[in-house]
Queue: 3 jobs
Job 1
Amino acid sequence: QVQLVESGGGLVQPGGSLRLSCAASGSDFNIYTMDWYRQAPGKQRELVAGITSSGSTNYADSVKGRFTISRDNAKNTVYLQMNSLKPEDTAVYYCNADPEVWGVVESWGQGTQVTVSS
């Protein structure tokens, strides 16, 4: 099972940018689709963006054009570049490793807080 550690969260003003990182260890990074989820207080966890092992990406409508997901397979790391941040982007952001093969368990990181406020 892969272990995931997120970093890069913090407090940013509206319109600002942050880059989240998720470092993976303990398993073959290349067998996972990597996703970023977020959960705001009182709301359900939602998928923000995902990237397959081959590099195909998908985004929630609410972040299209503002967020970019990428991965560096050599560094076993996935990134989420967040631009033009809005107060409604405030949430705990979680990294998820979703296996593309049978018999492997998915993994979650511990989460990193992103707060967008003036």
Job 2
Amino acid sequence: QVQLVESGGGLVQAGGSLRLSCAASGSIFRITSMAWYRQAPGKQRELVASITSGSSTNYPDSVTGRFTISRDNAKNTVYLQMNNLKPEDTAVYYCNIFAITRLGAFDSWGQGTQVTVSS
């Protein structure tokens, strides 16, 4: 089993920056994909950024050029640097990883961290 702990959310003014972190623990052999999603009130959860084991990244148009995903494989941690934040970025942000452990493969989610951007 894999546990994820997120940190870094908070309240920021429009144009500001935040950095989210998500650390994975457990009997992990290898983490393949890592990603960040977000869900605003009344909306579906949407992909914000993803990164493969080879560090290829993917972003939707809404955050391209403003958000950067990165990973530290030694620490089993994924980061999301968010710059030039906008009020429409307000949401609960969730990390998601796919990990291979001694007990099998797990698709795990973090508990979520609130990001609020004021105008």
Job 3
Amino acid sequence: QVQLVESGGGLVQAGGSLRLSCAASGSIFRINAMRWYRQAPGKQRELVAAITSSGYTNYADSVKDRFSISRDNAKNTVYLQMNSLKPEDTGVYYCNADGHSGSLSWGDYWGQGTQVTVSS
């Protein structure tokens, strides 16, 4: 089984920065795409950024030019650098990954979420 553990959330003032990390552990054969989602209170979960195993990235329009996703394949870890944060970036940020476990079964995996709060 594969586990995802996020870290790096917290409280920051508008205009500030945070860096989220998500490490995959357990029985891993290969992690494919890794993604960050967020869910604001009363809203649906939305895709923020994604990165493939080869490094191709895409972003939600609302975070382009402010957020940057990267990964370390050797560590099975994905990062989200968030700059120029706005109050509307507040929410629970979830890490998501798909790939094959050590038993070669494919799975879609989620972290437990980390809270990001941006004060105005």
